[in-house]
Amino acid sequence: MAEQSGDLGRDIARVAVFAALIVVLGTVTIPMPGGVPVTAQTLGVMLAGAVLGPRLAPLSVLLVLLLAAVGLPVLSGGRGGLGVFLGPTAGYLIGWIAGAIVVGLIARSARPSWWRVGLGALVGGILVVYLFGIPVQALVLGVDLGPTAVSSLVFLPGDLLKVVAATVLTVTLRRAYPRAFGTRGSAATRASVRAA
User: Fold this and answer.
1) Low-confidence residues of the chain: pLDDT under 50
2) Which DSSP helix (H) or strand (E) runs through 171?
3) Where are the domains of the chain?
4) DSSP for residue 38
5) How far apart, in whole angstroms, are the C-alpha atoms of residue 116 and residue 27?
6) Radius of gyration of the chain, Cα coordinates, nearest whole angstrom
7) What residue ranges in the chain does DSSP mark as E strands?
8) Would you state the pLDDT for residue 2?
9) In angstroms, what CA-CA distances link 147 with 86, 143, 150?
10) Where is the signal peptide (predicted)?
11) What pLDDT is attached to residue 77?
């Protein structure tokens, strides 16, 4: 019982750390036309998925979104409040939840490796987030889906750099501090580090 409560406490701490990381990365923002800024917060979502896995990563994202909903300035550019869930970035924010799950499912599969982390960050952190974000942005701005998707390509180079950064940081963290990945997978994590 004490071990279970210890595991729960560690899980809560890990969720809180990655929620804080997502918030801090929101301070890195470049405004763009169309109301959707370039932000480093998606890097935090990718890292949460890769390190915490599909069960805990969405909790980090949900914590950030809950803090934003109650009005705290935790999103890029110091935004917060219910209004952010009605603006052009709303779909991207909701996409973070699904994206974190997908990153975790791919990156934290049976044999984690650098290419799985990269693939997870690419599919979950870019493709899934765009699949949620672009249609909502088009709807809110009253623009057709095609032009909105084309205009979103301006974000792709930065997002690809975030995939590389998430991959490098995750692999480095796995080697330096495997406990960050949780106690349940620690033996498998150590074995994957030796195999890498």
Assistant:
1) 185-196
2) helix 156-176
3) 2-195
4) E
5) 28
6) 17
7) 29-30, 38-39
8) 53
9) 20, 7, 5
10) none
11) 82
Report how far apart, in Å, the C-alpha atoms of 106 and of each of 79, 123, 128, 161, 165 are.
31, 9, 13, 19, 17
Give the pLDDT of residue 132.
98
Task: Please work out, in degrees rounded to the nearest 5, the angle formed at the alpha carbon of residue 67 by the alpha carbons of 82 and 153.
Answer: 70
The CA angle 78-163-140, to the nearest 5 degrees, is 45
- DSSP strand pairing (29-30 vs 38-39): antiparallel
Residue 111 amino acid letter: R
pLDDT the model gives residue 29 = 78
| pLDDT value, residue 192 | 44
**Which contacts of 68-73 are long-range, i.e. CB under 8 A and separated by 24 or more positions?**
68/93
Per-residue pLDDT reduced to its tens digit, 77-110: 889 999 999 999 999 999 999 999 999 999 988 6
pLDDT confidence of residue 1: 56
Both tokens assigned to 36: 């959707």
Q: What is the DSSP letter of 182?
A: -
Structure tokens at 43: 């890097």
168: enclosing H helix or E strand: helix 156-176
Look up the CATH architecture of domain 2-195. Answer: Orthogonal Bundle (1.10)
Determine contact, residues 46/91, Cβ cutoff 8 Å. no
Cα 26 to chain centroid distance, Å, stands at 12
- Identify any residues that bridge with 38 across adjacent strands, giving them in sequence order: 30
